[in-house]
Write a structure and sequence with these properties.
282 residues, alpha/beta, Rossmann fold, six-stranded mixed β-sheet, four-stranded antiparallel β-sheet, 10 helices, 12 strands, globular
């Protein structure tokens, strides 16, 4: 069966990785070099090398407990690596805080939805705009013209972002009152409001029905094309991963066991064994 999602040919680069052909000649948006973290002697992630092109949709997959969310936590500085380097747009991120990393260009969603349930849909998106200079404290307190100008711009930007998912008519609703699928989409919109260069999606299709998942696939591609950013996603829905991910990295017990295109990963016996277990002989 043919794939309705057009993918660019993946080509090798000097760092022994592959990136989409359209990203050749541009610095990768993310480079992880020998990245690792230990918790009490346990290597949760060990010697991870990963390169992502500037407009690549990449997948990070593996069995439960493989270390996927730990990688996201390392990229966003929830955890600081025990060893190795993370380069974001060519800049070393060591010593940075989570907030600084967000301002540098990484935004994420979570496996468990983390919205401000009692705030409106629009206000949730506006919170995502916080890392862009809005107005001074004084103009906010005194409600100066500059305050109202920035408020109007934030309102218009929030509606513009919501319109990506046709959610602009939900702007005044409480976030907690939205259906599950809409809450997932809102979390992605809020992440986009921070103006990222790399969007991390942690199991975006979790809890979605097949039609919602199909719509999500279209929207992830639309986001990449509209914003010209890279997307790295953790996902257990292999149909989603194989349809839209261009480069795929497979983790097991914190180590990379395979990297390649969807076609290469699908037929890799080491990956199949990691997911299904080794067949008993005899």
């Amino acid at each position: 069966m043919s794939n309705p999602f057009q993918k660019t040919k993946m080509v090798p680069v000097p760092s022994h990785s592959i990136i989409p052909e359209r990203d050749l000649g541009k610095a990768p948006i993310l480079e992880c070099q020998h990245l690792g973290i230990e918790f009490g002697g346990l290597k949760a992630v060990n010697d991870l090398n990963l390169t992502i092109g500037r407009t690549e949709i990449a997948g990070l997959i593996g069995p439960n407990g493989a270390g996927k969310t730990t990688v996201f936590n390392l990229l966003t500085k929830v955890y600081h690596p025990t060893h190795g380097t993370i380069l974001l747009d060519g800049k070393d991120t060591s010593g940075k805080t989570t907030e600084q990393i967000n301002k540098m260009g990484i935004a994420r969603t979570f496996q468990n939805i983390r919205l401000f349930s009692n705030l409106s849909v629009e206000d949730n998106v506006k919170i995502g705009l916080h890392n862009q200079e809005v107005y001074s404290t004084l103009s906010g307190i005194l409600r100066l013209p500059s305050y109202w100008k920035k408020e109007k711009e934030a309102h218009e930007r929030a509606l513009e972002l919501l319109s990506i998912f046709d959610m602009q008519d939900m702007a005044g609703m409480k976030a907690g009152s939205l259906p599950y699928g809409a809450q997932r989409r809102l979390e992605i919109v809020r992440a986009l409001a921070t103006n990222p260069k790399l969007l991390l999606l942690d199991e975006p299709a979790a809890g979605m029905n097949p039609s919602e998942t199909a719509e999500l696939m279209e929207n992830i591609v639309k986001i990449r094309d509209t914003f010209q950013i890279a997307v790295l996603l953790i996902e257990h829905d292999m149909n989603l991963v194989m349809n839209i991910c261009e480069g795929i990295c497979v983790l097991n017990f914190g180590e990379v066991i395979a990297k390649g295109t969807a076609e290469e990963i699908q037929g890799n016996p080491v990956v199949i064994e990691a997911y299904l277990g080794k067949k008993k002989e005899g």
